[in-house]
Amino acid sequence: MSKKIVTFGEIMLRLSVPCYKRFPQANSFNVSFGGSEANVAVSLANFGLHSEFLTCLPPNLIGKACLNELHRYGVHTPHVVTKPGRMGLYYMEEAVAMRSSQVVYDRAGTSFDSVAPGDIDWEEVLAPVGWFHFSGITPAVASTAADACLEAVTTARRLGLTVSCDINFRRNLWTYGKQPIEVMPELLAHCDVVFGTELEYKKALGIDMPGFKAVDTDYRMDLDGYARAAEDVNRLVPQCTTIVFALRNTLGANHHLLGGTLWRDGCLHVAKIYNIDDVKDCVGCGDAYVAGIIYGMTNGRDAKESLALGAAACALKNTFLGDFSQTTAEELENCI
Amino acid sequence: MSKKIVTFGEIMLRLSVPCYKRFPQANSFNVSFGGSEANVAVSLANFGLHSEFLTCLPPNLIGKACLNELHRYGVHTPHVVTKPGRMGLYYMEEAVAMRSSQVVYDRAGTSFDSVAPGDIDWEEVLAPVGWFHFSGITPAVASTAADACLEAVTTARRLGLTVSCDINFRRNLWTYGKQPIEVMPELLAHCDVVFGTELEYKKALGIDMPGFKAVDTDYRMDLDGYARAAEDVNRLVPQCTTIVFALRNTLGANHHLLGGTLWRDGCLHVAKIYNIDDVKDCVGCGDAYVAGIIYGMTNGRDAKESLALGAAACALKNTFLGDFSQTTAEELENCI
Amino acid sequence: MSKKIVTFGEIMLRLSVPCYKRFPQANSFNVSFGGSEANVAVSLANFGLHSEFLTCLPPNLIGKACLNELHRYGVHTPHVVTKPGRMGLYYMEEAVAMRSSQVVYDRAGTSFDSVAPGDIDWEEVLAPVGWFHFSGITPAVASTAADACLEAVTTARRLGLTVSCDINFRRNLWTYGKQPIEVMPELLAHCDVVFGTELEYKKALGIDMPGFKAVDTDYRMDLDGYARAAEDVNRLVPQCTTIVFALRNTLGANHHLLGGTLWRDGCLHVAKIYNIDDVKDCVGCGDAYVAGIIYGMTNGRDAKESLALGAAACALKNTFLGDFSQTTAEELENCI
Amino acid sequence: MSKKIVTFGEIMLRLSVPCYKRFPQANSFNVSFGGSEANVAVSLANFGLHSEFLTCLPPNLIGKACLNELHRYGVHTPHVVTKPGRMGLYYMEEAVAMRSSQVVYDRAGTSFDSVAPGDIDWEEVLAPVGWFHFSGITPAVASTAADACLEAVTTARRLGLTVSCDINFRRNLWTYGKQPIEVMPELLAHCDVVFGTELEYKKALGIDMPGFKAVDTDYRMDLDGYARAAEDVNRLVPQCTTIVFALRNTLGANHHLLGGTLWRDGCLHVAKIYNIDDVKDCVGCGDAYVAGIIYGMTNGRDAKESLALGAAACALKNTFLGDFSQTTAEELENCI
Amino acid sequence: MSKKIVTFGEIMLRLSVPCYKRFPQANSFNVSFGGSEANVAVSLANFGLHSEFLTCLPPNLIGKACLNELHRYGVHTPHVVTKPGRMGLYYMEEAVAMRSSQVVYDRAGTSFDSVAPGDIDWEEVLAPVGWFHFSGITPAVASTAADACLEAVTTARRLGLTVSCDINFRRNLWTYGKQPIEVMPELLAHCDVVFGTELEYKKALGIDMPGFKAVDTDYRMDLDGYARAAEDVNRLVPQCTTIVFALRNTLGANHHLLGGTLWRDGCLHVAKIYNIDDVKDCVGCGDAYVAGIIYGMTNGRDAKESLALGAAACALKNTFLGDFSQTTAEELENCI
Amino acid sequence: MSKKIVTFGEIMLRLSVPCYKRFPQANSFNVSFGGSEANVAVSLANFGLHSEFLTCLPPNLIGKACLNELHRYGVHTPHVVTKPGRMGLYYMEEAVAMRSSQVVYDRAGTSFDSVAPGDIDWEEVLAPVGWFHFSGITPAVASTAADACLEAVTTARRLGLTVSCDINFRRNLWTYGKQPIEVMPELLAHCDVVFGTELEYKKALGIDMPGFKAVDTDYRMDLDGYARAAEDVNRLVPQCTTIVFALRNTLGANHHLLGGTLWRDGCLHVAKIYNIDDVKDCVGCGDAYVAGIIYGMTNGRDAKESLALGAAACALKNTFLGDFSQTTAEELENCI
After folding, report:
1. Which residue from A118, B90, D132, E18 lies 20 to 30 Å from B182 (Cα-Cα)?
2. B1, pLDDT greater than 90
3. Cα–Cα distances in Å, from C61 out to B102, E300, F86, F228?
4. Cα E152 to the chain's mean position, in Å?
5. Which residue of C has its CA nearest to B25?
6. DSSP annotation string for F316-332
């Protein structure tokens, strides 16, 4: 069996209005949980990998419910810590036809925001592990959380793990006084694999991509631009040898084109573009992309196949309601 | 703030079969309320305008439930009258793919049918108001209701309000012995703004539009035809200076093209055509169109922008279940 | 097999608010059908008898849905007639704890109201039948409907059927200018079996029961009073040889005592009192009582057992939502 | 009225996961019933024909529930037999976008599997009947069931009925040691009408269709191939004078092209191709196709119209959840 | 019509697990809103009074949804203020049989917590008003909120309003360093009417009630104790001339005894005890009690009748799910 | 932490009709899983113990869904085996008021039925374990399953585990030719703890209890009878030093008295009787009783406290829908 994979990050309660209703029309909410790294962890468990998720939860029944949901899909949570505070949550109205989705975040004062160096015994957590994954959301929420991240990645590197980061830039989270460019480069310097969009690479590493357009009006990708950008990333953080770009082109609320590229050893691999015109729920499809690629890489697949698995995972995620992808490894393999 | 807008007409209970079921399969109905003028009133309230709805309801708990629903969305109902009778209702099966919607009307003997001149103190209702709107449904249901309409529009005109009418021709309602052409011209003669389709203008005013086809097989609109028709309308009811045409082209049960024209001062404005291939519920999208244009006109927008707002409101309506549009002014503005 | 039983009367659509909500809180209604005679017909079919229901429905999809629901439980409807008009309906809020149920009737202008002599070929309907049952609701709704009833019972008598009537007095239905005392005696004169409460016998036949109280404060029944009343009924309509009283004592919205008496050949039989403190839906429990007794009588059970079957059927009805009892003959037999 | 039509086959309980969920996410199942011949029977009843369904059920409450559901739609079941065993069932996850549907069959040890010659008095069942229909599923489940089928078709033929068979090849059902080619020819030799796809004709009759492709990449049908194949069938089972091919081209989980051909008297008729891009539930659309054609043929329509009715019925089925089509004859006629 | 009544306090989102489930089993929450003063406001509006609710909400869509829900029941909200922060919420598991309800509060950082003197123009709000009501929850949440309360009651007093306070002691809210005894007396000194339980009067005013037991083991109330306590309250806050005690005796999760006393002019009035053994939702029944008494007092009913109305309102609340009572004035009057 | 506890037995899918409906009225089933030993395992996990469940499942998606549900509540399943066959299931109608529940079992041909010696490596499973629990259902289903049980208990005994058995006599399961008295004594001879009712002890061990009545008409337990019976059991299987009796007295479908006794070292301990008059779902309350006692014994509680914990767990189970108890250790402790 492949070695254990640990993902670390925040997980939130998600309250969605059913049946295309608006908030004022709701008399019930669909309840689920989600968060970038948790979504990756669930995908990996559904693929049959040994997946552990690490987070910080409030010591109440909602935190306990969150753990139960993770266990349901086979995610292990032996090292989750509890700290005073609340469970972050977000309210969501679905997108439909030409109407956009509406999201109201409610994550001030969460337990996760108070995670700090020393709260987690990284040595113990990471010793038996083969891969460590986190996203740029954790260093965004608080200065101490960023420090905890650094503690994690340096420990992971020392112990010889593969380290990956999904930049996941969220403008409204960076409120403690620093910009991504001040924090992310040091973290990415310890990573082997990095995931992002062109905007995210720019925010996190200051990459400049003059004239770059992900796709032109005929939906042809700017492959030269992608290759140049990946090389720029590799120059800035040379430890990063696998550099992944995600592509989502939104033609309508429920009609997306999905694809991406993966650069390694000077070579740019390009995924097949999936045209999904019946998107049920696109939240978490970037996380499914990450999970598909990690699945490929931990199973010894080459760069091209790993990317193909990621793209398929990303596309399949759109068929599930909730943040969590329920795709199996078998379905993934059937797609490629 | 803009002045108060009063709409006057019938409101009915709507009982819809959920999940694409047929009537014999239903063990529950979705419950909502709707009616052409009520739909306009709710849209206007959701846009933030001071919207009052005037109708006649039975003095029972279902009538009260109807008022509660209107209040929920901020519609004022201080002058609603109650009369013996019942609440009109209609049963509905959703359209899906190549299957048409099925509607069973059940509106004989409603309280609204007995509305007559003298039932409403129009002087009191309309004095503090800037705009009065009604549709051709009211004069269709009964001779006395037509007289009440005339009482309303003459009072409104005397008090200096803007008056608008949506012709809304419904063949099966005109059962008391008169045809629209015998009733509508006198009412329209008091209007400043009129809404309709080519068929409705023909029925209400006898307009003849030889050779007119709303769109040709390439979906190009017959702009000359629209302009000539508007001028004909203007000649017959010269008080009407804003003449609006609505266009709905049904490509499939859930696939509609929506657009329209607005004529003013000899100039025909044309709305962008919206192609909605995931229609959730098209009932009331004509009323949303009306509401969008009234919103524009009461906020001092020019003819072109008012029409654009109407078309956007119409298109967005298709994303909501139920007659009532839940679109906000902000969403409307974002579309144009 | 026992001979066919025909019941004749109105059936209405029932729209119930779920989950103890009030009308203004409802966004869905539970949908079912019900009516005194239809409820009897469904019970009989669920007991395994050959049960036919006869009514008049509107020629629309709601009438068709009603027939489908009757067929589902094995009720035959070969002679149902359709006439213009609407489907009668009623809206209902459940009773809960100290809060009463709320009912809003909406049955003006129904197809059934227009039933008149000649609409139904009673000769054809009743020829192959053993038992004919109707209730006092039909002669209440219209003078012509009362005449149709008389046509039915005289035909039934001539053909040698057993005829039964449940008086079912509903004050608000007798609006066409006559009182029950002017109409019911002639109808009851053709019956073999009659069902009612003390109030109903008083309204229908003018029985005077001075000093009678169904139960005293210790829940002991006034058996002498019941016997005297039955004898009075038998004197007035001597053809009626089986005279049934129903007893419902409401201790709370969901706590009822149920029982009754059956008089035949000068002998009063008394049912066991059922104490139901978890009533789910009491609508139609009187109809289940009627059905249980008819089941007993058509299966050759004696007076005492037939009454016991009726009381058990009545009590069991309270465990089903909707007007229709779903009790099987086997459950009934297990109770006695 | 047209003569009675009897269909004979297995009916199963269907448990579907709602809302695009997977099995592990389900906390409720939608419940319905279905089976190839039962689906045909329900369609025919919904078209207003006198439809009888014959099957073998377990003597328990689930079998009774199944009968109730059939009665609901007007299907008659006077000759259904009960035998020890269980009700077959299948679990189903819906297809959505690029995700396939998942089906778990659970039909070992069903009552139907034990149907054997002598269990049904075919003489009595078929005497008053005009048409007998079955499918290739029955001879697949057990050797004794195949024998019962043969008993049925020979009786039907002797009594002069029209006999039809839908080949309905299901590889995983033929487990008792024989192949379709060993069983089906003898059964088909007694049929007047046969339905199938090219693969099914090959499996059942050994037809060889070298180079045949139902549609080319431009969606043009191989009409010569269809004609040749039909003639081959006719040569092998000359009693079969109406030979129907069904065509389903799956462009996506919810996007199907549907059509077919009907050969009679040396002439190949071709149905209009329906392009359904919002398939709600495609299970049973082949059975609806069969039912549409039987409807046409029993109403004296010619070959071309019968085929058109079948294709419309097939397309409309995709708009209903569950195996049973709820299309009415009126809707069918409106389509052609 | 009676004069306007203003209530002021926090309102929260309530997320309840349906069907007796626990949090980890929930895949949906029932959504409603509630808060002590909002509950009073909704009850008053449902009684037909002119009811205004004043609070502080976050400027987001959840705050807007809250206003819509209040409008639905006719509560006016013209002076609601918005401030940065979040909407407070609480998660709830229902009590059932011997299992207690579970509540998880999540109200740190709410907009309401930041209410401070000067945020509300009390002069403008209260000028046209006849009655001002608040509870001890507001002064509990923050020192500034307590100051805002004092600002409100002194303005109300100056303007000649009737002022009432429900002490509503919640131990876990008083976290800013003060105890109720340090804050409440000054606020209560401005009140005309005060509501509480014996424990609450002790916490708020330091009343000592040696030997007092609300009810003895035979459910007889300690009337002397209640009278003495009321006189003690009146001595400490002599402005308070109506002193109300609420009594809830919990015999089981869904079985409560409800009653209370009202002291005025040296006379103790005692309410009938309601025995509710089918409690559907007891949250807010104390607020219904308050509303019933205010309804009585503002309609000129005497002390005894006002108390009786309060007790009936309290008992009826237990039949509604959610915090809001849906009782009408008519139902209330029928109870007394 | 206490040592791991392994339970071994069958788990089935449970399909329940919601809302008091009957099978023919159902259009959805509530879905859950349950089985005597699985229920014990879930209870133990919810109490915070290390609980492993061992069973045999079919290798399909329904088996996988079952595992996911067990994981959700923290039950470990590392040694579950898969064998060909099906998932056993049962259909259930709820009991309500005087109507009994209806259960239709469908468990022929399950994978579990084929469990045989050698299928499970008991040495590996039980080596790290402290307690092994099974019930009399496993030896009932098949001769090979009984042999597997014997293999398990002899291994467990050799390894020094505590072994417990819940006799759980189900008459309709013992169909392979043997009676409990031929099989159970040998199994019980290896047990330390045994659970049962008086009937079960009689069936399994041939205990004769002349004149024994669990409770008399005043609900007083026959303590002498219980003590004598326990001593008889102990004489027959002297290894069994803890002998537990369960008591359920059904006063109505939703009104049960629950209690029990525990005998150890010649001393009979008696549990408080719980009177539950609002039973939501009593399935699995005997399993909760077992789990509560195991929880007490593995946490070093004495006989009296362990019994009290069992009785509380049993009573609390009745508040949860589904077989699985969701009670926490904290709630249990609060009850005693």
Report:
1. B90
2. no
3. 9, 53, 42, 70
4. 17
5. C65
6. HHTTSSSSS----HHHH
Residue F107 DSSP code: -
Helix ranges (DSSP H) in D59-179: 61-72, 122-126, 138-141, 143-159
Q: Are B286 and B261 in contact (CB under 8 A)?
A: no
Q: What is the ipTM of this complex?
A: 0.92
B103 interfacial to chain C (CB closer than 8 Å): no
- Identify the CA nearest to E17 among candidates A264, A62, F226: A62
CB contact under 8 A, B276 and A98: yes
Span F85-122, pLDDT tens digits: 999 999 999 998 889 999 999 999 999 999 999 999 99
Could you give phi then psi for residue A71, rounded to 5 degrees? -60, -35
Task: Pull the structure tokens for residue C288.
Answer: 């289940």
For residue E322, the chain A residue with the least C-alpha distance is A27
pLDDT of A219 reads: 82
With a CB cutoff of 8 Å and minimum separation 6, the contacts of F225 are F209, F211, F212, F213
DSSP character at residue D197: -
* Residue F89: closest CA among E126, E329, E299, D106: D106
SS (H, E, C) chain B: CCCEEEEECCCEEEEEECCCCCHHHCCEEEEEEECHHHHHHHHHHHCCCCEEEECEECCCHHHHHHHHHHHHCCCECCCCEECCCECCEEEEECCECCECCEEEEECCCECHHHCCCCCCCHHHHHCCEEEEEEECCHHHHCHHHHHHHHHHHHHHHHCCCEEEEECCCCHHHCCCCCCHHHHHHHHHCCCCEEEECHHHHHHHHCCCCCCCCCECCCCCECHHHHHHHHHHHHHHCCCCCEEEEEEEEEEECCEEEEEEEEEECCEEEECCCEEECCCCCCCCHHHHHHHHHHHHHHCCCCHHHHHHHHHHHHHHHCCCCCCCCCCCHHHHHHHC
Say whether residue F102 is in contact with chain D using an 8 A CB cutoff: yes
The span from the CA of D120 to the CA of D77, in Å, is 13
In contact, B160 and B149? CB cutoff 8 Å: no
Q: Indicate the residue type of F232.
A: D
For the stretch B248-294, pLDDT in tens is: 888 888 899 999 999 999 999 999 999 998 899 999 999 999 999 99
Helix, strand or coil for residue D134? strand
- Look at residue B90 in the predicted model and tell me its pLDDT: 96
Q: Is the pLDDT of residue B324 over 90?
A: yes
pLDDT, tens digit (0-9, with 9 covering 90-100), for E143-171: 999 999 999 999 999 999 999 999 999 99
SS3 C239: coil
Please give the average per-residue pLDDT across A124-144, as a whole number: 96
What percent of chain A shows pLDDT beyond 90? 89
Confidence at C325, pLDDT banded by 50, 70, 90: very high
Give the residue with greater pLDDT, E193 vs B3.
E193
Residues in chain B with CB shorter than 8 Å from the CB of C15 are 15, 29
Cβ-count burial A302-318 (b if 16+ within 10 Å, e if not): ebbbbbbbbbbbbbbbb
Angle at C57 between CA C51 and CA C58, to 5 degrees: 160
What pLDDT does F261 receive? 97
φ, ψ of residue D308 to 5 degrees: the values are -60, -40
Q: Output phi, psi for B154, to 5 deg.
A: -70, -40
Q: Report yes or no: F86 at the D interface, CB cutoff 8 Å.
A: yes
Mean pLDDT of chain A: 94
Q: Is pLDDT at B2 greater than 80 in this prediction?
A: no
How many Cα atoms are found within 13 Å in the side-chain-facing hemisphere of A121? 5
Q: Is A91 on the interface with E (CB under 8 A)?
A: yes
Report the gap between the CA of B331 and the closest CA in chain E (Å): 13
The reported pLDDT for the residue numbered A224 is 93
Return the pLDDT at A33: 97
